[in-house]
Amino acid sequence: MSSGPRKVSIVEDDAAFRESFQDIIASAEGWTVAECHPRAELALKDIPKNPPDAVIVDIQLPGMSGIDLVRKLKPSCPDTQFLMVTVFEDADRVFNALAAGASGYVLKRDVHARLLEALDDVMNGGSPMSSAIARKVVQHFQKPSPAPEGDYNLTNREKETLDLLVKGYFYKEIAHELGVSIDTVAFHLRNIYRKLHVRTRSEAILKYVGGSEEF
């Protein structure tokens, strides 16, 4: 991935949504559309040749699903961030998308207002989720189930940071809520990843909410 405007690819079979995403990105400073694909199979062939900074992926695609596409692309594009967009709200799809390597998950009804913010957030290490999706994640387990403090030795501020991440807050929203800088939020999350023995925000969310040791 080169310097200059960040490149984003779009994988969306709905032409209206695909064109809308293109228009939003084309009008934004610092971003450019690298390529668009109506099917996962085409994206799987082309994207690894010149991996973009981010990929917007619809979950429900004809043929191969968006989740399977991310699972296949992530090993060959480890630095690319994948933002899932969909009409679905069930928790199983959330976990499947995150486990496949997605960095964020936004409902289509929210994405037009939050697309650029979500893209910026995933590039800054965040894990954006629509508020409805965040509620579904929490409701799936009735309440978050962090491990006992003795297991991970998370500080109170680290727990507060992780709670907000699970709720779907963006980096700058976490910073505002806690009254700290975005750099401080990133510092706390690096410590959280180390203590939870995870490598990504998606793994941290899954481990914190689900109490799982496996990914």
Task: Tell me what the structure shows.
The chain is of the alpha/beta class and 215 residues long. It folds into two domains: 6-136, 3-Layer(aba) Sandwich (Rossmann fold), CATH 3.40.50.2300; 143-210, Winged helix-like DNA-binding domain superfamily/Winged helix DNA-binding domain (Arc Repressor Mutant, subunit A, Orthogonal Bundle). Helices cover 52% and strands 13% of the residues. It has eleven helices and five strands. The chain has helices spanning 15-26, 40-46, 66-73, 91-100, 108-123, 131-140, 149-152, 156-166, 171-178, 182-196, 201-210, and strands spanning 6-11, 31-37, 54-58, 81-86, 104-107. The protein has a five-stranded parallel sheet, with helices on both faces. α3 links the parallel β3 and β4 (81-86). α2 (40-46) packs parallel to α3 (66-73) and α3 (66-73) runs parallel beside α4 (91-100). The two termini are 27 Å apart.
Strands, helices and their partners?
Blueprint: E1 6-11, H1 15-26, E2 31-37, H2 40-46, E3 54-58, H3 66-73, E4 81-86, H4 91-100, E5 104-107, H5 108-123, H6 131-140, H7 149-152, H8 156-166, H9 171-178, H10 182-196, H11 201-210
Parallel strand pairs: 1-2, 1-3, 3-4, 4-5
